[in-house]
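Archive transcription. Copying these from loose printouts into the bound notebook so they stop getting lost. Printout 1 of 2:
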Amino acid sequence: MPSDLDTASYRTAVSHFATGVTIVTAAGESGPSGLTTNAVCSLSLDPVLMVVCLDLTSRTLAVVRDKRRLAINILAQGQQDLAAAFASKRPHPEKFDGVRWREADGLPVLDGVVAWLAGDVRELIPGGDHVMAVVSVTAAEAPGGEPLVYYRSGYHSLAS
């Protein structure tokens, strides 16, 4: 069914939904890859599932399709520069330049995040200009801290 809703009106309305900021990482043949996304949510407790939405043009999506695994890194307040770097179209090795990370559950996990979850991709479901990955969570850790929040096209803290 056609819609009269224009993209600008949609983006403005959706910008009023405060979300966390994450970097999805994967381990490919050429090393780690990653992208920034806020289209992430918990899907189920039994079994433990997450949903991550990935842009169809993302190079990280190609790695996720191939390896069928990913990690969700939930960013902390003060990691805005990291979010911007991973949102860029720079080559993956450049995105990881100077970034501290470690391997956990066979995937790259970024240092300083408030939490991370890793798992296996059960399904990749088409959704417009994105793909929804249903992820079976196999490992998680929550070091804690103040999360980075995205609201009305800008970064915020919960206190602000």
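Printout 2 of 2:
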Amino acid sequence: MGTRATYCSAPRKGDGRVDVEKLIDELVEVGANTYSFCIHAQATDWEDLKLILPKARAKGIRVWASIVPPSESPPRTKSYAEPFRLDYERWAVEFAKLSLSETNLVAWSIDDFTHNLKFYTPAYVANMLEAQRRINPRLAFAPCCYFPAITPKFVTNYCSQIDGILFPYRHESAGANLKDASLVEPELNKIKAAVGPWLPVILDIYASAHSKLGATTPEYVEQVMIAGRRAANGVMIYRHQDPKANAEKFEIVKHLFNEWKKEER
């Protein structure tokens, strides 16, 4: 079964807590079989993850937990991923413990992992994942890895340790932009050739704007999704689209995910 996922931007209540019922309803409507919850927006996100998991499991939806690296933490940003902040071995252990009881917590990820390799040395990652796998070896670690960073050295140092790659497509092999979908398959094929057939690659698609590369069009999102389904092991939409504020993109994701869902039956 291919991954059909959305990422982050869960609907919130007035107090900042996740509107869990609304989130699950939207995931069901859009045809997602996976949701990646980013623990960063509020100090209560860790507790909200625990509320999301059983509701998602009841609808057959798998969950990833995503946390931010040092480059997206103080002093560069206002807030940490709470409550364990930059203690990634503790995060690994706590995710593993949670996944034993909440069995639809199938993976965890670190955003912008390859921007922070001076921190995430091979030895650090080995210790972090050893701690996790002592508790639950079935929980996958699939960090966010950008095209220029997936070098032979990266493959040697990391690909025997990780369980998958979340690959944000930005046309980086020929000038970064969020307008041209033509290199989705060539870049995915290069990555898969480099890392080997045993390592799943999930394509991360910018439906929401990037801070430097700007916004995407609905047509672009559709093109990248279709190409990604051909070449990747799954598709994740960055970010979860609001059905009212981002109606056109929401409908595109909904149409394609539900079409793919029918084909997989």
